[in-house]
Amino acid sequence: MKMSAIDRRAFLKRAGLGSIALGSASVLAEAFAVRALADGEATFHFAAISRGNTIGNVSHAVNMSGFGRINSAEVVGGGYFQHYDLASSPPRTIFGAGDWKAKRLVSFDPIGTWGVITAGILVIEIHLVREIPSRAVVPATLKVICNVGSGGFDTGQPEGFTLTVPGAAFSPFVPGVAGITAFSTVVADRD
User: Fold this and answer.
1) pLDDT tens digits, residue range 15-58?
2) CA 65, CA 76: separation in Å to the nearest integer?
3) 8 Å CB contact between 100 and 82
4) What's the pTM?
5) For the chain, what is the total number of helices (H) and then of strands (E)?
6) d(CA 186, CA 109)
7) Degrees, nearest 5: CA angle 129-61-124
8) Exposed e or buried b per residue across 47-71, where buried means at least 16 C-beta atoms within 10 angstroms of its C-beta
9) Which residues contact 80 (CB under 8 A, 6 or more apart)?
10) Distance of alpha carbon 2 from alpha carbon 8, whole angstroms
11) Exposed end of the chain (fewer CB within 10 Å): N or C?
12) Is the Cα torsion angle 103, 15, 83, 137 positive or negative in sign?
């Protein structure tokens, strides 16, 4: 799913990130010094909603965000998730929510870089650490897809993430609702 700048702006506002993402570029530029990563390293950031299978009248969806760092041997990162019924009335029914942590790099396949943004596909094994409704650790596989249309790079897959929870009837969650992803060849460090 390709989004225009206006669609991304609306998505970020709905996700509660609008004021940060839209108004703080100059503030962030002053607050952070940017440095290049070593060859074969990248950072990733994403915030998206993916949809799972519909079972009965329940339309499974998951909000997920994350960030981290990848090199040729490992991945370090994490974020949050919230699994809910997209078909229910607001406030939508939540089935599970918590954070996630990267456990193992399966693959990172960059297809091209435009400026400091890299298009490609990242696949990692993760642990979903559910806090709602009760604490549980659930192994899963996360695939993050980043296309860079401005640079002419398209993976052939929709931008966003696929979350696969083995044995779950509602899995996999696939891109298609809304989202933004980015891989980069630089990392921001505090001055």
Assistant:
1) 444 333 333 333 333 333 345 555 668 999 999 999 999 999 99
2) 14
3) no
4) 0.80
5) 3, 10
6) 17
7) 50
8) bbbbbbeeeeebbbbbbbbbebebe
9) 63, 64, 65, 66, 97, 98, 99, 100
10) 9
11) C
12) positive
- Residue 32's DSSP bridge partners are 190
Domain boundaries, the chain: 35-190
**Is residue 91 reached through a cis peptide bond, with omega within 30 degrees of 0 on the bond before it?**
yes
Report how far apart, in Å, the C-alpha atoms of 25 and of each of 19, 114, 146 are.
Answer: 10, 19, 21
Q: Contact, 173 vs 61, CB < 8 A?
A: yes
Measured at the CA of 160, the angle between CA 156 and CA 164, to 5 degrees, comes to 100
Residues linked to residue 178 through DSSP beta bridges, in sequence order: 49
- The CA distance from 85 to 167, in Å, is 19
Q: Which amino acid is at 183?
A: F
Sequence-separated (6 or more) residues with CB below 8 Å from residue 149: 2
